[in-house]
Structure formats: C-alpha cells, structure tokens
Amino acid sequence: MVYEAMKDAKNLNPVLTDIVDEHLNDLEQAIKYADEQKIAPMRRMALDNLMEDLDNLNPENFVPKIGMKGSLIVRYIGPPERKFKESDYELYVYPQSESMEIWLYLKNGSVQKIEYQNKQKK
Questions:
Q1: Whether 111 contacts 105, CB under 8 Å
Q2: What is the pLDDT of residues 66-89, one digit of tens each?
C-alpha cells in the first residue's frame, strides 16, 4: 500500500522523483526479499517431495503414490508387465511379489488410483 502510494505521488508530481526513487528501491528490495522468504520453503518442500518420490522409485522397493508421473515410473522402474486401457484410464500392471500385483490407473499421464491385486493363476 505504501509502495503504491509512493509510486502514485511520483507520477502526480515528478519533482518528487529524486526523493521517492530511493525509498521505492528500498521497498522493492524488501518486497522481493519477503517473496523469497515465502517461496524458498515451498521450493525446498517441492525438492524434498521429488527426492522422496525418486527414493520410492527403486525397482526392489517400489512404493507408488497418487500423482506420480507414469513416464517417471517407466524410466526408473521399467515398463509395466502389462499395459492396457480400462474405461478412461491407462492401466499399468507391475509385479509386487510372487502373489501380488500393483495396478496403476493413469489419467493424463499421472497415477490417479492404485490397487493391489492377487496375481491370477495361469
């Protein structure tokens, strides 16, 4: 609010430019710093979440999460054992164990639903 008032005063009376510019610059720097203080923790949180997701993309200990990108899963885990369409979803099937499978339902490239199914006997 003070920043806008100072800009308005400068625009209304250009004689004030020399006086107002120094304070405007200080306010701009303060606003930029405050914004960085708000954004920096969010950036760190996003990076932490990404690193956690990458840790979970270990083929031996794969833990899928809603929102994971199918392309990342394929890159780090490998292609699904089976892949097909089911209603509005693209379904990726990965082995979990000898008797269990993970069914990942993707929509627009992201995991929307996760099911654990018993493997069907062949």
A1: yes
A2: 998 998 889 888 899 999 998 899
Compute the distance between CA of residue 40 and CA of residue 29 in angstroms, rounded to an integer. 16
Q: So where are the chain's domains?
A: 2-50, 68-118
| Most trustworthy range by pLDDT among 13-17, 56-60, 69-73, 109-113 | 109-113
Q: Look at the block and give the residue holding tokens 């120094």.
A: 22
**Which CATH architecture best describes the domain 68-118?**
2-Layer Sandwich (3.30)
Does the CA dihedral 64-67-68-70 come out positive or negative?
A: positive
